[in-house]
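Hi again,

Forgot to attach this to my earlier email, sorry! This is the prediction with pyridoxal-5'-phosphate bound. I've pasted everything inline since the attachment limit keeps bouncing my files.
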Amino acid sequence: MVERIASINAPADRDEWAAQDAAELYRLDAWSDDFFVVNDAGRVAVRPRAGDALEIEIMDVVDEARRQGLGSPLLIRFQDVLRARVQRINAAFNDAIADVGYTNIYRGVYPIKVNQLHEVVEEVLDSGRPFRMGLECGSKAELIAALPHLAEDDMPLICNGVKDRSMLSLILAAQRLGKNVIPVMEKFAEFDELMRLAEDKDQPTQFGVRIRLRTSGSGKWADSGGYRSKFGVSLPELMEIVEQLQATGREAEFVLLHFHLGSQISDVQILRQATKEIAQIYAELVSRGIPVRFVDVGGGLGVDYSADNDAGAIHYSLQEYTNAVVSTLAEVCDQRNVPHPVLVSESGRAITAHHSVLVVETLGAYQKNNIAKDYEAPADVHDAVKRLVDMHQQLRAHSAAHDVSELLEAFHTLDTVHEEAATLFRLGFLPLDQDALIERLYWSNCSLILQHLRAADPDPLPAEVHELEEKLVDQYLCDFSVFQSVIDHWAIGQAFPIMPLERLDERPDRRAVLVDLTCDSDGKISEYVSSNDDKSFLQLHKLSPGKPYFLGFFLMGAYQDIMGDAHNLFGRVTELHVYADDTEDDNFWIEKVLPGIKVQDMLAQVQYFPNDLERRMNAIIKSKIDAGEIRPKQGMKILEQYLACFQHETYYDTRESDEVKSQ
Ligand SMILES: *Cc1c(COP(=O)(O)O)cnc(C)c1O
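C-alpha cells for the complex follow:
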C-alpha cells in the first residue's frame, strides 16, 4: 500500500494542471531554444525546423524504436536540429556583419572534439556548405579524421593543440595538396619546428598563432585564457616570431590570430574585451607588415542549460554574442585604419548541444512510506513500536484539525524514538523484525506529518517542512549510467534539463531523485532544472503498474557521449538518427540505428575474450560434472546460457520484463 503525498504546490491550485504548467515547471522556454514544446496531448514534441510548425512527438520515436526491438537507453539525434543550429549561428554572424557594415566575411569552423561522431561531422559540414564552413581539430587522431573531409580547397581546417613532428609534417603535406589547413602555434618551439620542416621541404607554409591574452574567461573554464592558461604564445614570444619572420622574409606565412576563452563564456563583456585585445594585436601586426588575414575568436558561445548555479549562467543571446564580436573588431580596425579580417569562430557546444535527447526508462520507484492505513501493531512489541503505532493512529484520525505546534512536536518525538530504537537495536534489545517495523512507521508518520503541515499552510513555513520533504524524496531507478551519458553532471556539476516525455497534462506530484544502474553512490542526478526554488529533486508522476515511464534528458549533444566512460562496463547506448518528414507517419523517419555496445565488445576493451572465458567456465562446469554434483546435460545448459549473454547489450533489458515495479 502506497501513501500518496499531497500536491506540492499551494493547495488552491491542486486540481488545475495543464500541459503549459509542465512547460513552466521544467523551464522549457528557458532552454529549448524553440526546438522543444509540450503539446496539448501532454507530450514533448520536437520542432526541428525554424518557422515550421512540423512536430515530432519524442514518444513516437521511442515507440518505433521498441517496435524495432531496440533496447533502452536510447540516444536520439534530431539531425534537423543540428542543421538548424548551424544555420542560426551563421545567420546571426551574417546579420551582424550587415548591421555593422563589416567589410569582410565570417567563416565558422566546427571543433570536432565536441562531438566527433562521423554522422554529426558530416551533417554539420553538409548544412554548413552554403556558409563555406570548415573544421577545427585538436589532436593527431582528430586531424586524421578531419583531413579527408575538406571537399573544397578553401575550406579551412584549423589545427589547435600540441603538434609533434609527424603532425606538422602531415599538415605541410596537406597544404601541398592545396588544402587550406592552418596549424595554430601553441608554443614558440612549435613555430620553430614548423619553419624548419617547411624549409627542408622548400615549401612556404601558412600558420596561425594562439595568443595568451590578458583577458581571461569566467566560470568553469576561465583558465583556458589569461596569463595562467596552459595554452598559447605570450606577447614576448609573439615578438620573437615576428622578428624571425621579418629576418627571413617569410611574413606572409603568418595568416591567422587566435584566442579561445574557454567554454561557456558567461558574459559578453568579457568577450568584447578579449576581442579588443586580439584586434589591437592584429592591427599592430598588419601595420608592421605581417599580412594576417584571419582573426579567430575561438569557441565558448554559451548554451543555456538553465541551471541555477552561477557557473553555468549565460547572460546573452546568440545575436548579442555575434554583434559584440563583429562590432568590436570593426571598431578597432577602423580606428587603426587596417582592413577588416576574415572573422573565424569555433563554436562547438552551441552547434551540437540541442540536437540529441537521451531517453531513459524508469525501472522502479522506491518510496519510503508504505504502511497500511489500518495497521495494527502485533501484541508483545517493544514500547518504542507501540508509541509509533499510537502516533500513526492519531495522525490518521482526520476528525481533529492538526495544530502546527503539535505536529512539530510529534515530528521531534518521532525522531527521538527513531534514534532510541537504533540504540536499542545495536545493544541487542530490539529484534530485527521490530526494528524494521520502526523504520516503516517512522516514514509513514513523517509523511503524514508533512501532509498535515502542508494542509495547515503555516506562514512562515517551519524549517521542518523542508527537512521532511528532503527525507521523503523518492528514488527513481533509471536504466542508464551517469558516467557514460551525463559525465559532466558527475565531473563538473552541470545540470541538464530532464523531464517526462508524456503525461505532462497530469500534475507530477512525486518528488524524486534519479539514480542510475552503476554501483557507485555518485551514480545519481543531484541537481535539476526546474522552477522550484529547491533544485535537489525533480517532480515526476507516480509510476503506473505495467506502464513504462520514459524521461528525456535534453541538450545532450555536446561533449557527453565522447567523454563518457566505461564505469561498471555499461558503455555506449543505442543511437537513432531521426529526420523530420511531414509525408511520413508521425512526421519522421529513422535513417540509422547504431545498436548499443554488446557485453562481448565491452569486455574486449578490458582484455577479456570469449574463447578464454568459455574455456574457464567450461573447466568449472566439467569439474562439477566429474564430481557428480550436476548432470552433464544440466552443465551444458548452464554453459549455453552463459555464452548467450556475450551478445546481450550491457544495460537493463526492459524487453525481458515489461513490468514496472513499484515498491
Ligand atoms: C574546445 C574548444 C572549442 C569549442 O568550445 P565550445 O565551448 O564548445 O564552443 C573551440 N576552440 C578551441 C581551441 C577549443 O579547445
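The chain has a mean pLDDT of 91. Residues 333 and 339 are 6 Å apart (CA to CA).

That should be everything now.

G.
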